Amino acid sequence: MINPLFHPELREMLAENDVEQMRIFCDSLHPARAAEFLEGLKAPEIWEILRHTDKANRAEIFSYFEIDTQTTLLESAPREEASELVEELPADDRVDALQAMDDEAAEEIISLLPSEERRDVLRLRAFPEGTCGAEMTSDFVRLHEKMTVEEAIAEIGRQVHSHETVYYLYVLDEWDHLVGLVSAKHLLAAVGKGEVRMGDLMNRDLITVKAMDDIQHAIEVVAKYDFLAIPVVDDEHRILGIITHDDVIDLTSEEATRDAHMMAAISPLEEAYLEVPFVTIWRKRVFWLSCLFIGGSFTFSAMLYYSEALEQLTVLAMFIPLCIATGGNSGSQAATLITRSLALGDIRLLDWLRVLQHEILMGLALGVILGAIGFCLAFFTPHSMLESASGMVQPWELACTIGLVVVLICLFGTVIGSMLPLLFKRIGVDPAIASSPFVATFVDVTGIVIFFNVAKLWLL
User: What CATH number matches the domain at 142-244, 2.60.40.2230, 3.40.50.360, 3.10.580.10, 2.60.120.620?
Assistant: First the structure.
């Protein structure tokens, strides 16, 4: 959270042009804390303070700003200063910042980058959004399989200043094909073992992802094997880059946030809640609420259609909310479980039949318990409320009706809740949309149909 109490002190430094204090501020704080305090200042003020630290620390602080702040800073700064800052950023952060900028400003900055960095930016920007290639970084240590341990350590010393991670050392052949991996721990353990070469030390059993694979696949692999990074290769197994664990954490957080919004029928927010304009949040919420309201209007139509049944036996109205809520709750549970399992890769579309069989059994098992509770509640309904247009209804008749309705609605809600995410996934729609509000709205309408048809069969 931004600390507004710090802003007057920062502005006092700026007003007095206290170069030494601005330098101490940048160098003594953790870059994340420095960025947190600077966030509330205007772009020219932030630039003035960042100018008084070295390039590496400036880039480190910059990387902790929100993407909107990064964009504003780069677009407002002199192009030469902006290009120097971008040059210092990790390859993936560099591309993210440029992608968020105005196209013309981004092209001007790219044109000022050194040729090697410029080629790297253009190559990474070419991959479609949501692919592994779009999220990878080209900052990783490259070693040759014929290098000895001593030669490898010397090579790491030459490369390490320009790379953000040296957890894993990637071993290539003379054509840049990825042939193995050595961890920094194993390399250090081999120090002093004579002329041991990387080809003898490396692990050849590698797990990789392709550049055009969906990023979700990389997230699943990193989570499954607890990798610190995973290499991204092309069709000929040449290494293109790596996806690091910190990027996976960020992507997972973004995905979880987006799913949480979608499962509440809210279009995902791109900024912090309190920083988003009121009208923007209203627009994102009102669209889905309108869709749900229109869908819910079918409930009114169904109730109107069965109004005569209610007139014949008014006690039914007491049990409608209870029975309908059962379907919505069981469906929402199933939808949440299946949506999350799809996200984690625990189930695939090909597993739909197994999921259906499982949820039919689960719906029946849950429905029997809930139906038994409904049976008891209905059985002890006061006799004064059991009179219908055609005579008195026996308590056991009402109890059996409510019990059966609850079983059927619970079964139906569970099946629908489990199948909708799979259906949405199959047609290319985010499964998170098939979440609590949509399942509940759909099951409400069908639940009323089930309720009154069973009531007609048993009671009317």
Answer: 3.10.580.10
Tokens for 163, please give them. Answer: 């790379």
Mean pLDDT of the chain: 84
- The alpha-helical segments, DSSP class H, found in 161-244 are 184-189, 198-201, 215-225
Residue 311's identity, in one-letter code, is E
Over 80: is that where the pLDDT of 458 sits?
Answer: no
Q: Which helix (H) or strand (E) holds 356?
A: helix 352-379
And the tokens for 343?
């996200």
429: confidence class by pLDDT, cuts 50, 70, 90: confident
What is d(CA 377, CA 402) in angstroms, rounded to the nearest whole number?
9
* Spatial separation of the C-alpha atoms in residues 237 and 141, rounded to whole Å: 17
Residue (of 448, 445, 460, 436) closest to 405 by Cα position: 448
Beta bridge partners of 197: 148
Overall average pLDDT of the 135-154 stretch: 88
Classify residue 92 by burial, with Cβ atoms within 10 Å: 0-12, 13-18, 19+.
Answer: buried
Tokens representing 17?
């042009």
- 194 phi and psi, to 5 degrees? 75, -140
As a CATH number, domain 4-127 is 1.25.60.10
Residues near 401 by beta carbon (within 8 Å), at least 6 away in sequence: 378, 454, 455, 458, 459
Ranges in the chain annotated CATH 1.10.357.20: 273-458
Q: Which long-range contacts (CB under 8 A, 24 or more apart) does 292-297 make?
A: 292/265, 292/437, 292/438, 292/441, 295/438, 295/441, 295/442, 295/445, 296/441, 296/444
Sheet holding 142-144, edge to edge: 142-144, 168-172, 178-183
pLDDT at site 240: 92
pLDDT at 339 over 90: no
Q: Which two tokens stand for residue 346?
A: 């625990």
Other Cβ atoms less than 10 A from the Cβ of 427: the count is 6
Tokens for 283? 């627009």
Per-residue tokens: 144: 């040759």
The answer to whether the beta carbons of residues 292 and 434 sit under 8 Å apart is no
Residue 233 is inside which H or E element, if any? strand 229-233
